[in-house]
């Protein structure tokens, strides 16, 4: 670059420098104003979003997690059984036998629960019948039998 070109660039830089400094100061001031204006609104919006999330999504997520609990346990058991079967630790007959035992235990448990429920119902029916029987024929409503005179000497009356 020639001397004349360098001087022109320097002169242009000196002419633009106050405007650039002013623009930098204005930008900093506007940024501070924007931050002062937007910070409370952004904070409020973040708080509302957090509250809505906690009110709407957290219960749904917990409900889904609870509903997935038994499925997760079943999947873990099945995957463990599958890994054991793939390793050769279990045979197909053993797996069938375990499945049969599980079904049989489930049926037995269901039978015991039903039997217990029937026993409770029968016991309740007996208690209700006894209560009803006591209400319809209470002892205090029954009149005592009439008194009879007993002879002092039964033989004398028979002879005499």
Question: Summed up, what is this model?
Answer:
With 160 residues, the chain is an all-alpha fold. It has 3 helices and no strands. The chain has helices at residues 3-87, 92-136, 154-159.
- Tell me the structural class: mainly alpha
Query: For the residues shown, what is the average pLDDT?
Result: 84
What's the gyration radius in Å? 48 Å
Give the termini distance in whole angstroms: 172 Å
Question: How many beta-strand segments?
Answer: 0
Unreliable stretches, pLDDT < 50, 5 or more residues?
none
Task: Tell me what the structure shows.
By secondary structure, this protein is an all-alpha fold. It is built from 3 helices and no strands. The longest helix has 85 residues. It is elongated and about 165 Å long. The termini are far apart. The mean pLDDT is 84.
Topology:
Elements: H1 3-87, H2 92-136, H3 154-159
Which characteristics define this entry?
single chain, 160 residues, mainly alpha, 85% helix
């Amino acid at each position: 670059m020639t001397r004349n070109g360098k001087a022109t660039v320097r002169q242009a830089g000196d002419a633009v420098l106050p405007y650039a400094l002013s623009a930098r100061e204005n930008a900093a001031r506007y940024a501070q104003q924007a931050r002062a204006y937007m910070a409370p609104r952004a904070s409020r919006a973040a708080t509302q979003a957090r509250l809505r999330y906690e009110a709407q999504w957290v219960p749904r997520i917990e409900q889904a997690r609870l509903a997935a609990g038994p499925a997760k346990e079943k999947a873990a058991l099945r995957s463990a059984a599958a890994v054991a079967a793939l390793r050769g630790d279990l045979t197909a007959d053993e797996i069938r036998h375990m499945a049969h035992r599980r079904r049989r235990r489930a049926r037995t448990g269901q039978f015991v629960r039903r039997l217990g429920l029937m026993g409770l119902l029968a016991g309740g029916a007996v208690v209700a019948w006894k209560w009803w029987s006591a209400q319809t024929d209470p002892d205090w409503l029954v009149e005592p039998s009439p008194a009879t005179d007993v002879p002092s000497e039964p033989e004398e009356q028979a002879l005499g």
